Structures
1.
Amino acid sequence: MEQFIIKGGNALSGEVEISGAKNAALALIAAAIMTDETVTIENLPDVRDVNVLLESIEQIGATVERLNPHCVKINGKTIKSTVVDYEHIKKIRASYYLLGALLGKFNEAEVALPGGCNIGSRPIDQHLKGFKALGADVEVEYGMIVTKADKLVGNHIYFDVVSVGATINVMLAAAMADGNTNIENAAKEPHVVDVANMLNKMGANIKGAGTDVIRIKGVKKLKGTDYSVIPDQIEAGTYMMAAAITKGNVLIKNVIPKHLEAISSKLTEIGCKVEEYDDAVRVIGAEKTKSTHVKTLPYPGFPTDMQPQMTVALALAEGTSVVTESIFENRFKYVDELGRMGAHIKVEGNTAIIEGIERYTGASIIAPDLRAGAALVVAGLAAEGYTTVEDIKYIERGYERMDEKLRSLGAQIERVNSEKDITKFKLKVV
Ligand code: EPZ
C-alpha cells in the first residue's frame, strides 16, 4: 500500500506554487453543467475529489474535455439523466452539489446520499430545507436523495447553521428559479464568493456573496463562460505551517493573502514572521514559538480545515495552548497518532489542551482523513528520524503532488510502495 516516508529535520526553504481551491472547484464543476453552452474552468486542482466529480458528470452524459491537468471544458447540453448513482460519488461529500445544479436546471435530481465521514456526522438538512423552500419535494429513498419540483420559485431562506455546502447548493438551485431568493445566515467563505462570481459570469444575478445575506434574482437561462478557480486557502495554510514548524523560510505563491489572514495572525502570535505580497506570502519560522489559543469558526474565523495543522504547530510551542473545534464533532482523531510522535495533547469533548514539547520523534502513523493526514505529514517534516504515513489516499483527495512540492522545498519525503522502497529511501537520505 502506498505511503509517504519522511526523514524529518530539514528547514524548508524556497518557493511553492499553490493550486486551485478544491472546495471551490467542486462547486464550480456542478455549476458548469447548468448551461447548455461550454464552460471552461482553469486553475483546476488535479486532485482525486475533483477527478471523481468530473467522472460522475460524464456518467450522466455531460461532455468533459480535459485540456490539461489544470483546465477542463464542460458542456451540460448532452446530459441524458438526472440520476447520479455512480459508485465513487458516495465517497465525496460534494456530490450534493449535483442536487442543486440538476434541480436548478431540470427541476429534478436523484443523487446518492453522501455518507458519514471521518470527521463526524455531517447532516444535509439545511440543503434540503432550502430546496423545499424553493418548492421542491425531497425524499430519501434507497440511499438516494430524490428531489423534484413542478417549477422552482424564489423564497426567503434562513439557515439555522452557517453551512458552506447549503449556501452554495441553494445558490445553484435558485439561480434559475422564478423570482427572488434571499439566503440569510449564509456562509461567507471565499469559495461561496467564487461560485457566485462564476454564476454571475454565466448570466445569473447574485448579489451579496461574501456577506451573510445573499440575494438572487432568478434568470431564465445561463450561458457559457471561462473561469479560473481561486487559490486553495487550505493548501496554502498547510505549507505556511510546514514552513513554520521546520523553522524554514518559504514563499507561498499564487495565493490571496486576505483569505489567509486568520492563519497568518495565529502564526504571528506564536512568534513566526509572515510577510504579505500581492499574491504571495512568505513565512519565516521562529527558533522558539509561544503557545496560543485557537477556536475554529466559519470564515473569516479560523478554518476548521486548518485545525489539525495548527495543532501540530502548537504541540511544539512553549507553554499550554487550547484548541477548540466548533464546526465538526470528531476532528481530533489524529491526536492519538500525534501522541505516538511524542505530542502531549489531551482531548476533552471539542477541546484539545496542548502542552508544548521540544521535538517530535518519527513513528509509523495512519492518516485518518484529508486535513489530519496532511497535518501528520507536516509533523513528520519536523520530527527527528523517520515517519511513515499510511492511507495517503485521503491526502490525495485534496493535495496536488504534495510530496513533489515538499521535495522542491528541501524536504526528504517519498511515496513508497514496499519495504524495499523504504530501505532504498533510507540508504539514499542517510
Ligand atoms: C465544507 O463542507 C467543506 N467541504 C469542508 O472541507 C469544510 O470543512 C467545511 O465546509 C467547513 O468549512 C467542501 O466544500 C466540499 P458545512 P460542508 O455545511 O459544506 C453543519 C475538507 O477537508 N451542517 O459548512 O459539508 C455541519 O454538521 C472538507 O476539504 C448542518 O447541521 O460543511 C457542520 O457542523 C472537510 N446541516 C457545520 O454545519 C447541514 O445541512 C458546517 O458544515 C449542513 C451543515
2.
Amino acid sequence: MEYGIESGFLEQVATSCLVVGVLESQQLTPAGRYLDEVSGGFLSEILRLGDMEGRLGQTLLLHRVPNVVAERLLLVGAGKESEFGDSQYRDVIIKMVNALRDTGAGDAVSALAELPLRGRSLHECLRLATETAENAAYRFDALKSKKEETPRKLARIAWRVASEDATLAAQAVREAEAISHGVYLARNLANLPGNFCTPSYLADQARLLAESFPERMALEVLEREDMERLKMGALLAVAQGSREPPKCILLQYLGGKTGDKPVALVGKGITFDSGGISLKPGDKMDEMKFDMSGAASVLGVMKAVAELALPINLVGIIPTTENMPGGKAIKPGDVVTSLSGQTIEILNTDAEGRLILCDALTLAEQRFAPIVTIDIATLTGACVVALGRHPSGLFANHEPLAEDLKKAGRASGDRVWEFPLWEEYQEQLKSNFADMSNIGGREGGAITAACFLARYTKTLHWAHLDIAGTAYLGGDKKGATGRPVPLLVQYLLHRCA
Ligand code: BES
Ligand code: MN
Ligand code: ZN
C-alpha cells in the first residue's frame, strides 16, 4: 500500500472514505466534531441513536454525510481515553484497515493520527500507525494455487494532519514506509518454508538486494570450501548433516564515510532446525522453518537503511545452513574447533545456533573491526519461557549499547528486555573434553546460550537479541512478524541523528 499526508479541509477532501475516531462513550475526536458541525449535527445524531458508543475496535460505516465530499465516513471506536495506549492504538488501526478492506474503497483519508496517545509525539504516532496498517494488510499467499477471489481495492491511506505539521508528518511516513518494506521482506523470507528458503535461496535474495542498490551495496558469499579454508569449524560442523550447501553471506552497505567503522548485524540463518541427531519432537517442528528469522531481519534492516540512504556503514553477516540428522551429521560428544581456535564439545546437536553464530562473530571481528556488533537469533526456547512473546531478549557486554537498544525499543514499539550476562553463569558451560560445552543445562538456558556467544565477542561492543519469542506467532496466527526490523532500524536512525 501507499501512504501520504493530507491537510486540506476535511469536508472537501475527495476520497472514497474518511476515517474518524470516537472515544468512549460517544465522544467525537476533533475531526469528528468538525465534521459534525459542517454536516449540521449528523454525527451526534447517529451517536444519540446508540449505534456507536466508541468501544475499542467498534466500527460504523456511513454513506452520504451531508456537506461532505467523501463517498464514505468510517467511525472507529478507540475505547476509554484513560486506557488508550500503544496496543489500543494498534488495535484501532488494524480495525480501520480491516473495515476499509471490506468496503469498495480504493483509498482513505484517516484522522486517527489525532487520537490522544499519551507520551507519543505526532511523529511517533504516524510511524506506529503506518507500520501497523502495513502489517495488517499483509497476506502471504505466494504458495496458494488460487489467490483471493475479489482482490481488495484499498491501495492508499493518507493521514490527516494540520498543515503546519505536514513536513514532519511526511518524514515519519517516509521512515515508516522504509521500515515496512524491510519488515515485508523479512516476513516473506521467514514465512517461506524450508524446501524453498534454503541457504542458497537466502544468498540469491541477498544478491538481488545488493543489485537493487548497486552503488552502495557489495555482496560476498563464502562457500563451503571458503569456510574450510578459513577454518570455520563450528559452522561447518552443523552443516555436515545436511545435503544443502551452507553459505556465509557478507552484505555491506556503504552509506557512511570511507574508513568509518561499520555496525555489524549477524543473523542466525538456520533454514530448518530439525535438532539434528538430538532430534526435536514432532509437535510444531514445522515452526523451525522460522529459525532463519534473524537472517531475514538482517536483510530487512539493510533494505530499509538503503532505502532511507542513511549515512552509515553497515555490514550484514549471515551464517546459513540446515540442521539435519544426515549420515555425516555431528553427534553428541563430538568436539570441533571454532574459527577463534576455541574448542567446543557438542553435547546437544540442537544447540546449533550458537555454533554457527560463534564463527560468524569471529569473522565479523576479523574482517570488519565493527564499532558495534549485534547478533539476532531465534536462539532458545528458554527465552520464550522467560519472557513470553512481547519483548525480545537483550544481552550486552556494553552498558551504553544496551541502553541505546532499550531506547530504540521504546520509540519503535518493538521492545526488548535485558537479561544478566554475569560471569557466574559461565561455569555451566564447563566441559571435561574441550574448552567449553555447547549447552549449559536447564537453568537459565537463554543466559547460558548468550554466555557462550560472549566468549567470542570479548573485544567487541556486542549485543545479542534472542528473538525466539518475537520473530513469529504460532496457532491460527502462525506466521513471521518481521521483528526486530523496526527496533534495529530505529537504533540506526538514532545513531545517525
Ligand atoms: N531454534 C531453537 C530455539 C527455538 C526453540 C526457537 C523454540 C524458537 C522456538 C534452537 O536451535 C534450539 O533448539 N535451542 C535449544 C537449546 C537447548 C538444546 C540447549 C532449546 O531451546 O531447546
Ligand atoms: Mn536447535
Ligand atoms: Zn535453532
